[in-house]
Amino acid sequence: MKVSSEIEQFTQNTVHLNNPGEEDINNAYLRLPARGRISITCPIGGVGATMICMEKVGFFALMLIVPNRLQPTAQVWAFKGKEGACHDTGRTVSYRGVALAVLDDDGHLIEGSTPVCEKTARLYVLPVYRDFLVISQPDKSLYHRLFIDPKPFDCDNFESAAASLAKRLKGPTGSSCEAVPVMYPGPFRIIILKDGSMLRRGQITLLHSEQARLLKASKEALMLDGQDFASSDLSSARDFLTSYQIRGSLCLKDAWWVDGTPILKETLDFQALGRVNKTTQRRIGKLIARRQSYFILTGSDPRDEYGCCPSDDVGSSNRLVEAGLLHFLAWPAPPGTCPTTIYAFAGEIEQKDGRPIFSINDELRKQVQNHLESSKKGKITLLKNVLRVVLLLFVGMALAYPLWQKPKRPGDAALRNTQTRAPMINGVGIYFFHTSVRCNPCLNMEAFTQQTLGDHFSEQMKDNTLQYKKINIDDARYRHLIDRYSIFTSTIVLVRFREGKEKNFESLTAQVWQLYNSEQQFVSMLKQELSRFMSDGRE
How far, in Å, are 38, 56, 222, 344, 397 from residue 64 at the CA level? Predict the structure, then answer.
């Protein structure tokens, strides 16, 4: 899609509000279509509170404009339109302002050349970012895969990016310059200056005059000297390195947004430590060894069918929550935003006035450490048993290979399970169900389905009115779908969605098993059935 077309989708729907309350801002967000923008006029003294309300409901790229310094009012512009999953197209973004790093409304900490997903890169084409960001072109091979075989983007880099930034700073140096009041207008939520000073968007901050002048020259600060403010509205710039040493990466988060009330379980399942991935085990060991209070993950649980960005680490951590070993608190995630969650040992985290409070549960940590060490000792025996099984399987597979060999097919680049695509709102889902053990008929069905979608429905796949999903019948995560559609063998099910809810479905079991051995007839049948099903759903 062309950049001008992307921008037009945001700007053609605009809502204007005058000094609104939180409920008014929330209602405006709900009234806007999938993409749009909002303009709010409010007193300068109320800009900070207004921006916080806008951030909470999901607006992004907030930008403050003061038309006339003699007037006590200002305008805040913002956008709605973060939608879809995070896919990797090889894009990077570089910040080119006078600050050292910036934090956007999705928690991306940009310092130097930073990888971003395609969804984020498309948001950065908005004019509000133009003076501050340089976006690379996508990798052609990855971009061509975007609508058929998208590569997932790993969004979980918040803590590592914060740690990297902390290593570059040496701490506050002090200055004899006069401090003047400034306000960072946006579009980023926070900017970190080269001396470590942090400026929060919409907040009146005392800053050394030299830094203030540099920021003003690059359109990254509004000078507010000469205007009257209550002393409670003024605050000195926080130092990032000092805050990071005290609070870790939480110093970049609005902790008072955190939701949730952890509940202690009577029975703890320590065996769950052996069932999670190695990354989670190492992360737990690091919490104990360094006496750290928490870790933060970005992404959704793979068991969440409509999760934005499935993460194995989130899934493993949630299993430890279910086992009673961890607790979590989460920031509310507006639509299209990657969920961000704080994890800590059970009993070590609580929420007070929206702020996470931490303590250390030495007894639980000792028990966890003992089980982790016992698990390592038992892995040698387990490995021997696994090797024996693998050898037996290898022999069996070698004997059975001629019976189950997958036939070669032109264009064998399969449509990837589009579980990471955005949840279907209005459109049709085509679900291909298969068993763990694949036979020639099943492989034929899959190949012919992919060929049909690629040759005849590529546009519908691109605009997300048609989604393809491959589902393993033997996967317990999809038991609800197996029961709902009465699945017992490899098949195709067409599902219609309206306003995010399933309206009806149709199974093609009889047709696919009759035609699995004829590519031409199968493709013709599926094209006809899918076209009819999609057409029947149009009003």
Answer: 12, 17, 9, 37, 65
